[in-house]
Write a structure and sequence with these properties.
The chain has 295 residues and is α/β, with parallel strands linked by helices. It contains eleven helices and eight strands.
Amino acid sequence: EISACLVGSEMCIRDSCIYCVCWHFFILDTSFRNLMNNLRFKSKSLLDRQFQAALAFLQSSDSSLPSCELDHASERQSLLHWLDEQPVAEDTSHFGEERAFLRACLVGYSEAIGYLNNSTQVRTWSGEESCHHQAWVEQDSRAVFLEDLLLEDPGWTWQGTEIADCQGSDSPNPLHLVQVQEYASRSNLLIYVISSRIGIRQADVRLLRNLHQLGLADQIIFVINLDLNEHEEQADVDRITEHILRDLRRCGWQQPHYFMFSALHLLLQRKLELKAREQQQLEFWQDHPVSQMSA
């Protein structure tokens, strides 16, 4: 089995422009009627161990932090109130990661308890219901209870290949950076997506340097995702590209392998049915001086 990992400055399942970088490779009709998704929920025992470990870690630096058992609603409420009342200090020793994990568990536990058991549970949705997985991945207070999520397309040609769409480097949850690095370390290929509108930010620099230190430099290719509405001429794209490449060199990539195109433009070209607004956007781009780079 081959594993590919999508990382970048704005990788987020809610961002359709970036989401299609993953999906336009193999889905021309963007309906999900043939997809099947499998949500693997953590076992109750695993969740309890993770929760108590995070709690003990924070209690080691602040003894006033109350104890809590997830099964006790009053204790959950008390701990959540304590976390919300305390100022968020600069995270220097993973305190931010543990704090975010605890809060997500406390907020979402009452909703997730019906899916938790003594052993790992797998919930499967398919056909018209296949989009139900989005409710579990869009919010930290739900995603924290998942061990894994797998979307399957029975008609995909690349059988045995898995593509993971990772959180963006600018995610406010410090746990996401850890998860991205863990998944990237197990991947055969990493595609790092960079927005031409934003370029490389400080959050990208941190993530890229970490990936380089993990010895993953040769497994990464870069995609500069063109925002055609931001660039009126080729000279502007050239300037942005040079700036991005200069930043990549500073992060350790002297000769980075990169591709440049508009993911949204490609998606609209490949969709079998376009909404009126999408059709107007595509027609507007037909004579765009930069659009041929995405053809």
